[in-house]
Give the backbone structure.
Amino acid sequence: MRAFLFFYLCPSFHQIENTLETTSTPTPGRTQSELGLILGAFAVTYLVWGSTYLANWWAVRSIPPFLLAGARFTFAGLLMYVIGLAIGQAKVTRKHWRNAIFAGFLLFVVGNGALVWALQYIDSGIVALMVAFEPLMVVGFQWKMRGLRPGWKTLAGILLGIFGMALLVGQPDFVSDPHWVTALVAIFIGMIGWAYVSVWLTEAELPNSTFQSASLQMLAGGPILLVIAVFHGDFQAFHFAEVTAKAWWSLGYLTLGGSILAFTAFNFLLKKVATEKVVTNTYVNPVVALFLGWSLNSEHISNQSLMASVLLLGGVVLINSRLIRRRRK
């Protein structure tokens, strides 16, 4: 039963397989080297972003959460900004900075900051499954903010996701732990912030370069996280000599891999292939995170968690299938 559910955990298996097959098929004007870059970019968005949950879990064991997230995004933002200056990107206006500060606060302070803090108390794979609920929140904000009323398939996907989340968080081993419940609330607050700003960003005035825009948002969110780290006592709790090698490697991986490489790969794909293929990472990342947590971190996966994941990811697939048809019309 466990093996069957784990295979079924990726309800979009055939769609992902078709994505890679159709993407790797040569098309007029597309060279073999470009095809190689596209397939490599898919691998990065699937595997690197899926593995950041475990990397954060390892890092936060010896680096306090807000110091960890603040250092990661500040350094990544600086590096991306310097690269942007070197390649001659456009001038940044005051309005760009104002919007970037707002987006950076919700994305990296509220969204990522809450998630990293919660990883002190919840396994990385379970956190990844909870975050799979986020696309369902995005649908709600699109309805409220943009008047995009969801269709019946989207509503069915939301209903599946709600049942899946209730099944996941309602396990007796979880709800009996007060730290777990507090971490759950933090994750939901983070998802609300991330989902809201994801919709808001679609009409926000920011630099045309997504690379430059991301650097501004990271430079806005990273220092705020470092200020929070001061008041949270993270600097006092941080002891350089006690940081494990695994934590240092994880921090470097999160900064260079999760913040710079994966984001660049994602935006490269948006320019090269159909959007519905790019967004398959929405349901691949939780599967990767769950598997890595189980195989590399000895995280326990109950049958109830597996069943919940099927419902959660099934709901995301239903929502994305509606978006695919809309884009093809």
Notes: The chain has one domain: 38-328.
